[in-house]
Amino acid sequence: MNLKQMYVSVLMFGVGGLLLFMYLQAWIDEQYAESEENLKQQISNQDIKFYYTEEPKRAPKMLITSQKLDRSHAVLTETVSSQANANPFLEIATSLTPELSEEQQKIKLLLKQFKQVNLSPVMRPLNKSLIKDDHWKAIDEVQEKRRAFLYNFCKKYIKERRPLIHLMRMVSRIYVEDKHKLLYCEVPKAGCSNWKRVLLVLNGLAKSTYNITHDTVHYGRHLKKLDSYDLKGIHMRLKTYTKVIFVRDPMERLVSAFRDKFEHPNSYYHPVFGKSIIKKYRHNADGEALTTGSGVQFKEFIQYLLDSHRPIGMDIHWEQISKLCHPCIINYDFIGKFETLEEDANYFLRLIGAPEDLTFPNFKDRHSTEERTNSEVVRQYLAEIPATERQLTYDFYSLDYLMFNYSAPYVEP
Ligand SMILES: *[C@@H]1O[C@H](CO)[C@@H](O)[C@H](O)[C@H]1NC(C)=O
Ligand SMILES: *[C@@H]1O[C@H](CO)[C@@H](O)[C@H](O)[C@H]1NC(C)=O
Ligand SMILES: *[C@@H]1O[C@H](CO)[C@@H](O)[C@H](O)[C@H]1NC(C)=O
């Protein structure tokens, strides 16, 4: 083989690998979308038993198993499966690589452990050895109920927990605090700014939660996300760290996001989301609204949210919690609620042995004079939209309602 031929074949391998990777990625995304749809369907039919139980369609084996594989291919398949963490790929990778290098063996073992340890429903007991008095008794009882509730929900309805979503995406909203061994899954509009302040202090990156500005919290690059670690680092942390999530009533969270992003000047949400929303859903929109994207109405926002052909994608501020944090796969140890934010958070800080003078901050740093989004405010917003759309909005967040035992909003018809 001369140099040119070699060059060409290396190039072909590269291109082939890329195409294969893109193909598999698309396949995973499709599977994920399908299973989400399935679950919704089954919940609305009150027959939720079969979520994730169907055998996922096999990845067409011939794509990978064309006979003339060499080491570079083997490495490629391993890479694909380690990133995807989907079982069918693991099987394929195994079937075609008789002699794995030590490194590949390790990856394979990790993937296996991942499958066994993190993806079976487990409810680890909370370690309460640092709690010495009865002060937190009532809050602890509520916490244990919530944990059991979520555990039972996931066990009952999600029989086989195959990770049909890209692992890296699954952990991409989780912040890491290595000193106290914490994983915090960020749910926007549920106290996340103050949580990030607390994490900065726990980490030793700030002295107090009080002097950290909103921009430092959200745009400073101090806190690490779980997806910035390698597979081994992710696995170790998921297995041994205390995993915490704070949730909020879905409709309150939605209305709060709408008010924050569309009722105040915003140099991102107005031009990006506002413009597309007004263009599609407002008839006879005037030129100014079309150029600035300001002044989106709640009912227009809901039309966008429920549209199966949204002119612009979703956003973390109104994405379902079930999709942001995957509560049935990650096995969170502590489930806080925005409705009882301070007491839950302070109990949690005592559980993990945070410094005694560190308490959860109670300030609201943006639009601080405005009334907080509470159930009365939500009722007013929901009254603006037709009953059918209210129901569809509720359906849209049905998993979040069910997993965290929130009750459906009541609005007079
Ligand atoms: C519980 O936490 C304490 C204090 O952090 C620690 O010493 C102990 O080993 C932990 N127990 C378990 C079972 O993890
Ligand atoms: C916050 O900053 C102000 C001014 O920079 C300072 O006077 C104050 O002591 C700081 N507060 C804390 C709690 O560090
Ligand atoms: C679920 O919510 C209902 C109504 O708010 C409440 O009565 C019940 O105790 C909750 N269940 C659990 C397990 O928290």
The tally of helices reads: 20
Largest sheet: 5 strands, mixed
**What's the quaternary structure here?**
single chain
The overall number of domains is 2
**Could you state the order of secondary-structure elements as H and E?**
HHHHHHHEEHHEHEHHHHHHEHHHH
Distance between the termini: 78 Å
Q: Report the structural category.
A: mainly alpha
Main traits of this protein?
mainly alpha, five-stranded mixed sheet, 54% helix, binds 2-acetamido-2-deoxy-beta-D-glucopyranose, Carb_sulfotrans_8-10, Carbohydrate sulfotransferase
What is the secondary structure topology, with strand pairs?
Blueprint: H1 3-44, H2 62-65, H3 71-84, H4 87-96, H5 102-118, H6 137-157, H7 167-170, E1 174-177, E2 182-185, H8 192-202, H9 214-219, E3 224-225, H10 231-240, E4 242-247, H11 250-262, H12 269-281, H13 287-292, H14 298-306, H15 321-325, H16 327-330, E5 334-337, H17 341-351, H18 375-383, H19 387-396, H20 398-403
Helix pairs in contact: 1-3, 3-4, 5-10, 12-14, 14-19
The structure holds 2-acetamido-2-deoxy-beta-D-glucopyranose (NAG) (3 copies).
